[in-house]
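As noted in the main text, all predictions were made from sequence alone. Below is one such record, for Protein kinase domain-containing protein.
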Amino acid sequence: MGVWDSSDLVTQSFAKDSSEGVDSKTSNGARKSEMASTSWIRGDLIGAGAFGKVNLALNRENGELFAVKSIECNERNTSEMLAMKNEVQILSSLDSPFVVKCLGSSFSLEGGKSMHNVFVEYMSGGSLADLMKKFGGHFDEPLIRNYTRSILEGIQYLHAQEIVHCDIKGKNVLVGSSGVKLADFGAAKRMGAGSVVDSQLTMKGTPLWMAPEVVALAEQGPASDIWSLGCTVLEMATGKAPWIHIANGAANPFVALYHIHRSEQVPELPSCLSEQAHDFLRKCFQRDPRVRSTAEQLLKHPFITDSVPVLEEPQAPQPSPTSTLDFPSHHDVTGYTSSIVNSVPILRSPLFAKRASAAPLANFQSEEEPKQSTSSSSGADWRLWQQQL
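Prediction:
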C-alpha cells in the first residue's frame, strides 16, 4: 500500500479547532498542537469501523509511530463526521493511562477529497477482539481479571470526568506493551443533570452489548457502561458476543434487542469461570441500573483484588550421585522437554479444564503433558551393567 505525505498538503492544526469546543489547554495539549502541525506519512491500513478507517502513521521529524483515524468530509458522512468531532472534543480533554491518548487533529486534502484526521497513540496489539482471534479465540480467567481491572480503571476515570463511553466492547479496548486502554469515543457522551445522559430518543453503542435501559430509550448513564463491561467479560471468556444464540449468530441483532428489552433475563454466565467471576458478573447484570454496582465498587470486588492461586507441582528430590553415571545429563533432551511441559500448567488457568468448548481435552493434555520419561529405568540398567563389570 502506498504512503501519503502530508507535507504536500494543507492541514489545519489542532490549536485552530479550539474555537469549536476542543480544549487545547489540557495537560498534554502542547504535544497535541505539535503533533497536528508537523508533517507525517500515512502507512498501511490497520483497521476500519463505522467512523472511518485507521492507518499506521509516521512522524517525519522524530520517527514516532502513531495511528490516524480518517473520514472523508461529505454529505453522506454527516453522522460519522459529527461522531469524529465528538471523539476529538472528548478524547482531547482526557489524560489517563487507561485511555488511549489523542495526539492531535487536522483537516487535509488527499486526491481531491477533504479528510478529517484524528491522531491517537499507536497500540501495537490491536483490539482485545483481534487478540482473542490470534490466541485460541478466548482468554483464561487470570488474564480476564487483569484486563478487566484495567478496563474498570478507565471506566472509573471517565465517570469521574462525567463522561459515559456508551460503547464498551472488545473491539474498543486496545492492547499495547503498557497494557489495555479504552478507545473509540465516537459514541461517548457527557453526563447531564442527575448524572444521567439524556438519550434524546437515540441508542448509542453496539446492540448485543447494550444495557436494558438503553434499549428502552430510558437513559444512558454510568451504569450502562457497567452492563457493557459485563458483556465484554463474557466476550473474553467465550470469544463470542452475549446473546449471540438469540441474535442468530449476530445476523439479526434486533431480535436480541427485543429480548433484552422485554425479558427479565440476563446473559448466561459461562461455566468456565469461577463462582467469584459469576458474582462479579451478577453485579454487572442487575437489570435495574439503580442497583447495579459502580466502577468504584467493582474495583474492590474479590474478582479484581484477589489473585488466582497457582499450584506448582512438587519436584522429586534428586538422588545423591554414587558415580558420574548417576548425574542428570545436561544433554538429555527428554529432561528439557519435561521441564518446559511442567511449566505450562503454571502459566495456564487452573480452571481451563472446566471450559466446555475445549471438548478434546484429553487429547490436548496428552500433547502438552506426555507420559513421564523412562530415563530412571534407563539409569537402573546403567547401574546393573556397571555392577556386572
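Residues 4-121 form a domain with the Phosphorylase Kinase; domain 1 fold (CATH 3.30.200.20). The beta strands are 4-5, 40-49, 52-59, 65-72, 102-110, 113-121, 163-164, 173-176, 179-182, 189-190. These features were considered when defining construct boundaries for the mutagenesis experiments described in Section 2.9.
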